[in-house]
Design brief:
Layout: H1 5-12, E1 26-30, H2 37-45, E2 48-56, E3 61-65, H3 77-84, E4 89-90, E5 94-99, E6 115-121, H4 132-138, E7 144-152, E8 158-163, E9 168-170, E10 173-175, H5 177-186
Parallel strand pairs: 1-2
Antiparallel strand pairs: 2-3, 3-4, 5-6, 6-7, 7-8, 9-10
Helix pairs in contact: 1-2, 2-3
């Protein structure tokens, strides 16, 4: 099945009387926004296997998957959920990079340095309909600029931290709304957290 993180959150928080044991593991593809690790952890506890995917309309839908590595099976459940919240690796046929949007240099694979997620390939849009100005801006430098800010981990996996338009700047410090939401979701009194 497939469902956005908000759908997964509804399943996790459904009344106990509505929850029934699953006869087998159910595979769920999720995406649309970054799923909070807490929700992924709870879904796994209920008997679901999560596949996190990432993409945009302009690149023909899903372009990455958080492909699961066997060596991660021995990790604690909370660590597994944090890994599954990453967007992962790109599919064959599309190229993905995380670049400094000004210099167009790839960010290091250090899990800390943020850049913009960019794509190129045969499934990337040619242009926006009747909007050359938006097209030029989106495809500047020969890459489609997603507007998503991300890091790359040492294994190459991409993790979106925020949308460039959503980042909070406080006293010169950049604060990721995705990270704030993930922390809020961990509190038992919080049902859902999203930007206003």
């Amino acid at each position: 099945m497939g469902g956005a993180p908000t759908v997964l959150n509804s399943i996790v928080n459904s009344p106990a009387g509505d929850q029934k044991p699953l006869p087998h593991r159910v595979v769920v593809m999720t995406g649309g926004s970054s799923p909070p690790p807490h929700v992924l952890f709870k879904m796994e506890e209920l008997g679901f296997t999560i596949i996190h995917m990432y993409g945009l309309t302009e690149i023909g839908g899903p372009a990455t998957a958080c492909t699961w590595k066997p060596e991660w099976e021995s990790l604690p459940a909370e660590d597994k959920a944090k890994i599954k919240s990453r967007q992962g690796l790109h599919h064959i046929g599309i190229e993905l990079d995380v670049k400094d949007p000004i210099t167009m240099k790839s960010v290091p694979y250090d899990g800390k340095t943020m850049g913009e997620v960019m794509f190129r390939g045969n499934t990337v849009m040619a242009r926006y309909y009747k909007d050359p100005e938006a097209t030029d801006k989106a495809l500047a430098g020969g890459w489609f600029r997603s507007g998503d800010l991300a890091v790359r981990h040492s294994d190459g996996y991409v993790q979106v931290k925020d949308r460039s338009k959503d980042i909070i700047i406080s006293g010169g410090e950049n604060i990721s709304t995705v990270e704030v939401e993930a922390v809020l979701f961990e509190h038992p009194a919080v049902f859902e957290a999203r930007e206003a």
